[in-house]
Every structure is written in structure tokens, then in C-alpha cells.
Design a protein that fits this description.
This protein has about 550 residues and is α/β, with parallel strands linked by helices. About 40% of the residues lie in helices and about 10% in strands. It is an enzyme of class 3 (hydrolase).
Length: about 550
């Protein structure tokens, strides 16, 4: 079947022909006619099969008639990442060049002012990530009451990134009468539940088994030890005919470390991960697309939907935590019917995750050996991991489940041998017993010092007494041997609020009456008229 046979308009067909395409992919062939008819569509197809064009092409035809109003877009496309949103915007520019449609791209890392100006002019197509979309909506810069078409792309990735609450809120703000297009590479139960809630009598289209890799990708896995992974990767890069390649890591910091390592060994490599500023991410991806960078070390931010023609290899430096991510990663190569090669480096600790991936794709991934490196037994991973888990549980039980205060996480001292612990136990007990007499040398709380005379009260003398008690009563261990009780302003020892030896508790001041309340009141000077004042009634100084 040709594009001209599925009902697209002449302007769209011209743009498709200019882009070099004549035949639609299976997902495009089945989805485009239903979208043109205004039906809700639930599309499930593996990555790299042309899902983006399956909704952009008919949307351009549908939106060709009509005009957008300020701050009221006519269609909304939600994408999980900035790169995917930017790629959809590029498709609209390519396929909609013969139409006068206004488009706005709302992604993080860009200026709010420029995006608001586009919205105020009115846009026909709004492409956004959920976070920036809700930011502008809460500011009052977007009105969603005129949305006619809603597209939720890469719904399973939305689920993984935690965007589902935002998606549910956005859908609740849209008109009930609309057309909804729901696309996903996999269809887990959570995505099925969302599809049932968002779509109305949808046309379900599945062109390939869920989460199945493309048949044009040759897969292999190399069993290595964790400390040999970088050397194994360099060996593969030198022995394989690598034109350009994605190298995936699980963590962002590993992306930066691997990029530095490859650069030191003379490889033309770049880095791409979510912590980079948007301008740097866009620049790096464009350099990779133009061939200025041959190797792109990246996280899963580049695993979905990024369409770069002619990628020859994909290397999984880390085995992905989720089996679905493996399918998306290797889908960056072997696109549009071309052949590609995908290699994965697995350690004994990855045996369980590797088994989940092979169960998902329905076949075993061929094993290869790296020259000069020892191939470990994958069964070692489970046994070593079990021993580590058991020892960590026993250590935490022995320590009472608490960490030493002031120590960093994971830096606990190694456990001493049992013989050493047995020898150290009596010594520790003797040290405890030696400290006990020191505690018993303190005077009883009920003891009182002789009360000084009232007229001889002197605060400085009390301070000196306290200072002598601090300096003179020190033992070799630094503990006060017989420190006298603290005294109040009258020279009496201070008492606790409740003392068992003093009988019933007195509520109020008790014996500790403040000194200012014991002073004798002096007469107040009488007011004397100025003309009769002779100084005789002046109080004593």
C-alpha cells in the first residue's frame, strides 16, 4: 500500500514524498485511516516502527481547516522527555511545511517568556512535557477548553517517570468531547487501565507482540566481571565496525565517568543525561546526529523515540533494571528496515535481570567471549549475593539495627574475629567495673552546707567557690571526685524541684524565694509644689 491510498490530503502527500517516503509502515497503515475518521485509537507497536508519523500526518490534515485563538490550543501532544517533544516538533515542521499551522513547544530548560508569546498568538498544535505544561497552566497562560485532539505518546514511559498523576489531572481539564490517541510500546496492566479511562470505544491496533525487539537487530551478551567492563567495552569498540553508537548506563554519574574514560583512551565520545541543561543536551544530540560525535554515552533519557538514521551499534554498558528498557535501548539501531548490532555487558550479579529480559523477548541472547578476559560463571552472582545479604542481616542484628553516630552510610568497620571478641569481653567488663566507684563518690543530694550569715552574702565569693570546686576536684580520668552542690545567691545549696528526702513537695517558690522579694521597701518621695520645695523631704540616697 502507498501513502496515496490511505486518505491523506495532497499537501501532506507532497511533504511525505519530499521526505523520501512512499510506503507507510504497518502501524501507519492501520492507524492513519482511523484517525482521519475521528475515532479514538489505542496503538501498541515496538519502538522504531513510525508511531510518530502515524498521528502527526492525519493531525495535519484534520487541523488544516480552522483557526486557533489566543492561549487556546486546538490540539495537545504530551511527551515524557524533552528530546521526544523536540523530535515530534521536527516532524510537524517537515510534514506540515505546506500548511499554515502554528506550533508551540513547551519543555523545561527554555524561556517562559518566549513560550508565553507563542501561546498568546494562538497555536494549532501544542507539544509539551507534563511538568512545563502544568507550570504554564497554573500561571494562567493556557486554556484547555478548546482541545479537539489529545495525543499521549510513550505512555509506558510516562508511567515509569511518575507522570501519570499529572496526566490524569490534565485529562480532567480537557473537554469531554474530543479525540484521544494513545500510543505505547508496551501494554502493562497499569497502561491498560489508563487507556480504558481516557478512551471512548477505541480502535485497538497492535502490529507486533508487545516489547519485542526488531528482527533486523543482531543481539549478543558478553559475560565479564565488574572490574573488566570498561576494558571489554573498549575491545568491542575496536573490533566492531562501529560507525556511531549509543552506550547506555543505568546511572547519570556512570555516564559522566564512562565518558571521561573513553575520552582518555582516544575515543570520540559525548555524554547525555537528565542533569544536563537543555541547551547542552540539544547541542550534544545535534552533534551526534551530524556525525561530529561517534559515541554517545547516555542514560535512558535517550532510549525512547529518538530517531537518528543509520546508528550502527547499541552497547548496554549496564544491564537495564527493567526488561522493557532493553527493548527500547536496542531499538535505537536497526530502524527503518536497516540492520544493526546490539551488545550487552553482564556480570554475575545481573543473572536474574538477564533472565527477565530473555523471558520478555522470548528467546535466549547469544553469548560471546572477550579475548583476554576471564568469563565468570553466572551462577556465582546469586550465591555471592545471597552470602552478602545474609552477612549484612547478621551484622545489623548484632548491632541492634543502629549505626555508629557520626559515621557515613556504608562505612562501618569490618567485624572482628570471634576469638578477638572473646578476649576483649573480660577487659571491657573490668573497665566498666573500674568506672563504677567513681560514680558512687558523689555526695548525697540531701546533704547541705552550713548556711552563711545573711549579712555576709557575697556573690563574688560564691563564684570563687564554684571555680575552686571545678579546678580542684579532678581525678586522673578527668572526672570530679567530690564536687560540692551548686549554691544559690544566699549561699545555700540549690535544690531540685522534687527531693525525696525533704518530705512533701511545696508548690510555688518554697524556700527558693527570689532575693528581690526579700528587700525592705523604701518610702516613695511625696510630690511637693516647686514654690515650697526646700529639700527637706528628699529621701535618703
Amino acid at each position: 500500500m502507498l501513502f496515496s491510498e490511505i486518505g491523506l490530503g495532497p499537501e501532506v502527500l507532497r511533504a511525505v514524498e519530499d521526505a523520501g517516503y512512499s510506503q507507510p509502515t504497518p502501524i501507519q497503515e492501520k492507524a492513519i485511516p482511523w484517525v482521519l475518521q475521528g475515532r479514538d485509537v489505542l496503538g501498541c507497536a515496538q519502538t522504531g516502527t513510525g508511531k510518530t508519523a502515524s498521528f502527526t500526518l492525519p493531525m495535519i490534515d484534520i487541523l488544516a481547516s480552522g483557526r486557533a485563538r489566543a492561549r487556546m490550543p486546538r490540539s495537545l501532544i504530551l511527551e515524557p522527555t524533552r528530546e521526544l517533544a523536540a523530535q515530534v516538533a521536527e516532524n510537524f515542521e517537515v510534514y506540515g511545511k505546506y500548511h499554515k499551522l502554528n506550533m508551540a513547544l513547551l519543555i523545561g530548560g527554555e524561556s517562559f517568556g518566549d513560550q508565553i508569546k507563542k501561546l498568546e498568538r494562538g497555536v494549532d498544535v501544542l507539544i509539551a512535557t507534563p511538568g512545563r505544561m502544568m507550570d504554564l497552566f497554573d500561571r494562567g497562560n493556557i486554556l484547555l477548553s478548546d482541545i479537539k485532539i489529545l495525543v499521549i505518546d510513550e505512555a509506558d514511559r510516562m508511567l515509569d517517570m511518575g507522570f501519570i498523576p499529572d496526566i490524569e489531572r490534565i485529562v480532567g481539564l480537557l473537554p469531554k468531547m474530543r479525540q484521544t490517541l494513545f500510543f505505547s510500546a508496551t501494554m502493562p496492566p497499569e497502561i491498560r487501565r489508563l487507556a480504558d479511562a481516557f478512551l471512548m470505544n477505541p480502535r485497538e491496533i497492535t502490529v507486533a507482540p508487545p516489547a519485542s525487539p526488531a528482527a533486523t537487530v543482531t543481539q549478543a551478551v558478553a559475560m565479564v566481571r565488574g572490574e573488566d567492563k570498561r576494558e571489554a567495552l573498549r575491545h568491542l569498540l575496536r573490533t566492531e565496525d562501529v560507525k556511531n553508537a549509543f552506550i547506555f548506563c543505568n546511572r547519570k554519574r556512570d555516564v559522566a565517568l564512562l565518558h571521561q574514560s573513553l575520552t582518555r583512551h582516544g575515543f570520540n565520545a559525548g555524554a547525555l543525561h537528565g542533569d544536563m541543561v537543555q541547551s547542552k543536551r540539544t547541542e550534544t544530540l545535534e552533534q551526534f546526529r551530524q556525525g561530529e560525535i561517534a559515541l554517545l554515552c547516555c542514560s535512558d533519557v535517550a532510549a525512547r523515540g529518538i530517531d537518528i538514521a543509520g546508528v550502527s551499534h547499541v552497547f548496554n554498558f549496564d544491564v537495564p533494571h527493567h526488561a522493557d528498557d532493553y527493548v527500547h535501548r536496542i531499538g535505537r539501531t536497526g530502524r527503518a528496515g536497516k540492520s544493526g548490532r546490539a551488545f550487552m555487558l553482564a556480570t554475575p550479579d545481573d543473572s536474574r535481570t538477564l533472565g527477565a529480559i530473555e523471558k520478555l523477548i522470548g528467546r535466549e541472547i547469544p553469548r560471546i567471549m572477550i579475548d583476554g578476559l576471564e568469563t565468570p560463571d553466572m551462577s556465582e552472582g546469586e550465591s555471592e549475593g545471597g552470602r552478602r545479604r545474609r552477612s549484612s542481616r547478621s551484622d545489623s542484628a548484632a548491632k541492634g539495627g543502629s549505626r555508629r553516630r557520626g559515621s557515613s552510610r556504608g562505612d562501618a568497620a569490618p567485624e572482628a574475629p570471634r576469638e578477638a571478641q572473646a578476649e576483649a569481653a573480660p577487659v571491657a567488663e573490668e573497665a566498666v567495673e573500674a568506672r563504677r566507684p567513681e560514680r558512687q563518690e558523689r555526695p548525697e543530694r540531701s546533704e547541705r552546707q552550713e548556711r552563711p550569715e545573711r549579712g555576709g552574702r557575697d556573690r563574688n565569693r560564691n563564684r570563687d567557690n564554684r571555680g575552686e570546686a571545678r579546678e580542684g576536684g579532678r581525678s586522673e580520668g578527668g572526672r570530679a571526685d567530690a564536687r560540692p552542690p551548686r549554691q544559690d545567691d544566699r549561699g545555700e545549696p540549690r535544690r531540685r524541684w522534687r527531693d525525696e528526702d525533704d518530705g512533701p513537695t511545696v508548690v510555688g517558690f518554697g524556700d527558693d524565694v527570689p532575693a528581690f522579694m526579700l528587700r525592705v521597701a523604701r518610702p516613695v518621695a511625696r510630690a511637693v509644689p516647686p514654690e515650697t520645695f526646700d529639700g527637706s523631704d528628699t529621701p535618703e540616697a
